[in-house]
């Protein structure tokens, strides 16, 4: 659920083994066995233990050495000292306190802490791990500490009503499969409903495309071919009986491979779990199955939902296949962009819908936190993870969202969000802000459609937005993969500079500072709520600070393609490879329908979302370096 990170500041040496601390302390202890004159003087003055800080230990040991020096005992080497007097656990504990920003305990308090940890903390840790942490992935035993993203003081519960979808008019079956592959869900649904095509035929088309382009894009982990043909037959049989389930009836799609489907592998993109079969049905899969949709593939997730590297390779961008797709929803983004599926379900914790959708040039929705239940989906962070659709258009995103939204007992953070109908929003009554980095074509188009556009800026004083997200996400992730790390599987991880580094560092995040981060997060949310004086705003969708902020707040955003530009350093002779241009339309939590309505208005008079990537025809003399 993560994109590549901006360059990190030089980290503290938190990933060093703990025994390094002990060795450092031992060497310091040995070095002070030969006192300096000043130290002897200090000892003679009775300055033995002045309280906290490293000086306390040094003064104690120096006084002892001073006494031994006055007794004219022979010099003791560091090696001999270690043999004669083992390093104290208190010294090691004191030295380690700097990694917790807690260097204020004196020796007596450290001894008390050491005893308490041994007698109470460690036994309790072990007992709790036995209860809930033997299985990885956070699929069971969710936390009772729940994040509520709604800004309403009420419960916002109401009867959930389906959206009133538009019906595509005068839709005729194209003569070639390529054109069919790039039709919208609404258009394909009309072909199914009017029996111009069968679900079996659509399934054939998309499975062929998946197998044709996957060797280049590396976007598929598992083909669910047998299941797809079974579900397609069921959809065709129902239609023959006069039963039409709605716009997703018989429509093929793909799922990010963190989502459990019975009898098929759910690999989480990781070589550690590449043979894992979870015989359970994720809530989102159940919802799509009940709508008559046809699962054709489990699509690539970056390993343990981080970036685009997985155990089978690295997923590429169909618009420029020398680039990678970025973000852990790599497979859903690339497959939708290349016309390998009409839509797909991905997830985001910190940018893994926004980044790959922007890179691959598809429309996508990161919904309000809690809108879609995550039962039987691998968890990074229970207060950050969200499931959302990758589609050809904002209309399709609305259709898919309406199908998959809802609450489930397996996900205590899920709720019935009282969304309005995006197809019945009067956008002329909206005031929409635009940030300095907004794509101005979107601003101009919406203005021409009667929307009031005003310059806008989110104001907040919290400067630690990015670190709040990292502390939250990394600690939660470690809780879900505690056993994985303890068993040493991080050594087998596909990208050693990603989760392995972050989760080792997370071992040094104290519970108290995790809670302080959540309190700071609460302050941020209150400030954003007060600053959000418009109905929605338009701005860059891949700005890292905004990605962190949006996920911490739980606000929805629609990723909207707005154009194409030339790639940097194109080959001689030209190329059809392009860099996609996108923007984001953001709304307050529980107002996804506003963002969707604005995106639909923009796409109703533009065709950027309908462009097709040049994966078959790159141009003359354009050789891809693989």
From TrEMBL:
The keyword Transferase applies. Residues 1-38 form the signal peptide. Residues 201-532 form the Amidase domain. GO terms for molecular function: transferase activity. InterPro entries: Amidase, Amidase_dom, AS_sf. Keywords: Signal, Transferase. It comes from the Eukaryota. The keyword Transferase applies. PANTHER family: AMIDASE FAMILY PROTEIN, TRANSAMIDASE. This is Glutamyl-tRNA(Gln) amidotransferase subunit A. The lineage of its organism: Eukaryota, Viridiplantae, Streptophyta, Embryophyta, Tracheophyta.
């Amino acid at each position: 659920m993560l994109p590549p990170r901006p360059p990190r500041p030089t980290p503290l040496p938190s990933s060093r083994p703990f025994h390094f601390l002990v060795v450092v302390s031992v060497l310091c202890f040995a070095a002070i066995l030969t006192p300096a004159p000043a130290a002897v003087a200090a000892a003679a003055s009775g300055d033995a233990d002045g309280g906290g800080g490293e000086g306390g230990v040094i003064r104690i040991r120096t006084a002892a050495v001073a006494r031994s020096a006055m007794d004219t005992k022979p010099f003791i080497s560091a090696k001999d000292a270690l043999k004669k007097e083992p390093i104290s656990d208190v010294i090691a504990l004191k030295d380690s306190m700097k990694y917790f920003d807690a260097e204020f305990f004196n020796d007596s308090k450290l001894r008390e802490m050491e005893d308490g940890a041994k007698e109470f903390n460690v036994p309790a840790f072990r007992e709790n791990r036995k209860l809930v942490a033997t299985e990885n992935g956070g699929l069971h035993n969710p936390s009772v500490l729940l994040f509520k993203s709604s800004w309403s003081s009420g419960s916002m519960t109401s009867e959930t009503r389906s959206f009133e979808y538009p019906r595509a008019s005068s839709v005729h079956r194209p003569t070639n499969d390529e054109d069919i592959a790039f039709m919208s869900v609404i258009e394909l649904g009309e072909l199914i409903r009017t029996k111009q095509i069968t679900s079996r035929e659509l399934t054939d088309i998309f499975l062929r495309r998946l197998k044709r382009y996957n060797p280049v894009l590396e976007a598929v982990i598992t083909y669910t071919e047998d299941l797809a043909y079974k579900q397609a037959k069921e959809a065709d049989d129902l239609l023959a009986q006069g039963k039409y389930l709605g716009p997703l009836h018989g429509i093929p799609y793909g799922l990010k491979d963190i989502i459990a489907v019975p009898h098929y592998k759910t690999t989480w993109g990781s070589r550690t779990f590449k043979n894992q079969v979870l015989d359970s049905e994720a809530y989102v899969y159940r919802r799509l199955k009940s709508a008559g949709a046809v699962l054709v593939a489990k699509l690539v997730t970056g390993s343990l939902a981080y970036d685009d590297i997985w155990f089978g390779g690295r997923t590429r961008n169909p618009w420029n296949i020398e680039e990678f797709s970025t973000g852990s929803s790599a497979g859903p983004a690339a497959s939708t962009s290349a016309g390998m599926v009409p839509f797909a379900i991905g997830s985001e914790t910190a940018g893994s819908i926004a980044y790959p959708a922007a890179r691959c040039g598809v429309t996508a929705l990161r919904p309000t936190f809690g809108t879609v239940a995550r039962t039987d989906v691998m968890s990074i962070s229970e207060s950050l993870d969200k499931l959302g659709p990758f589609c050809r258009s904002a209309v399709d995103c609305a259709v898919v969202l309406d199908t998959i939204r809802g609450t489930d007992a397996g996900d205590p953070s899920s709720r019935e969000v009282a969304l309005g109908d995006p197809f019945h929003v009067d956008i002329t009554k909206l005031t929409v802000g635009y940030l300095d980095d907004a794509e101005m074509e979107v601003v101009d188009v919406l203005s021409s459609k009667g929307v009031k556009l005003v310059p806008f800026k989110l104001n907040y004083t919290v400067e630690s937005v990015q670190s709040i997200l990292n502390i939250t996400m990394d600690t939660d992730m470690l809780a879900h993969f505690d056993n994985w790390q303890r068993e040493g599987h991080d050594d087998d991880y596909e990208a050693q500079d990603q989760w392995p580094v972050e989760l080792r560092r997370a071992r040094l995040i104290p519970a108290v500072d995790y809670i302080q981060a959540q309190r700071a997060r609460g302050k941020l949310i209150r400030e954003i709520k007060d600053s959000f004086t418009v109905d929605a705003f338009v701005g860059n969708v891949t700005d890292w600070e905004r990605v962190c902020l949006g996920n911490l707040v739980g606000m929805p955003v629609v990723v909207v393609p707005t154009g194409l530009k030339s790639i940097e350093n194109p080959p001689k002779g030209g190329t059809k490879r392009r860099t996609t241009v996108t923007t984001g339309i953001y709304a307050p939590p529980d107002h996804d329908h506003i963002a969707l309505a604005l995106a639909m208005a923009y796409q109703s008079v533009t065709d950027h979302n309908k462009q097709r990537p040049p994966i078959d025809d790159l141009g003359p003399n354009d050789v891809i370096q693989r």
